Amino acid sequence: MADVQIDINDSPFQRMPVEPTQLAENATFPFQCRKGISCWNACCSNIDISLTPYDILRLKKRLGMSSGDFLVQYTLPYEMDKDSIAGVKFKPVEGGSACQFMTPEGCSVYEDRPTACRYYPIALLSMRKQDEYTDTVSYAMVKEAHCKGHEEPRPISIEDYRKEQGVDVYDELGRGWRQLVLKKKSSGPTVGTPSKRSLQLFFMACYDLDRFKEFVTSEGFNDAYELTDEEQQKILGDEMELMQFAFRFLRQVMFDEQTIPMRADALERRLARKQEREAQMAEIVQKLGPLDDIVKPAAEVDDKYRCAD
Prior knowledge:
2 domains, 44% helix, 3-stranded antiparallel beta sheet
């Protein structure tokens, strides 16, 4: 079975010069980004930054926005592959290519900056074999002509750099999403082209967490899935838990990994609800009386408003 390899940020490194040599976590490289360096803000002036679900969660909480409003104001969707699941990337400033959060002083959301920004100039490479569930990781170096950070006399290991940038936490909380992407890529055509509904579910569950929360509390969801009161309270009371549950839900919907109990009478309950709605509609129509008494025939309406020749 062939390996499938992706960058966690997928889009950002497509046009970047990534050195082909794979590096281990204990590899050392010289690098420092600091205010006063000649290339300060250069990488933020021309962005192509993909966001993970945890990136969006951190940023929307920092800005005090709903996930839906954040997506509209600050992001753009894109296809990871043809006819495949969607990714989300930063939307640059109107009419330009700079990040909306860039200021002369640097990043205005630095403490909650995305995974891709934290990793730079390292690329995280995730690999997964088609017959395996777990992924393995390695690293590669990204070197761009404008970046002078590589000339700084500060050697640091990839392991220490990841800790310094706080990216180890981001990786842990984004692992469920990364595995979904890897599994879709490694499965390829064997799982078929995703339906429109499954693509919509993927986008909502991964990126629009506030709407996914509404979905989990909906009558339709609870007619189909059987969660204990304890589990419901856990996922609805903690957005981190809700995000992890979203990944679990998508594995079940997309790859039939059954971990969320389905109600035995789910289909019957749905049919009963449909019949109930149809009965309610019939009752309303009956109370209104014959439609002919409410809606004038088209000919009468035409005659009333027809202009004289």
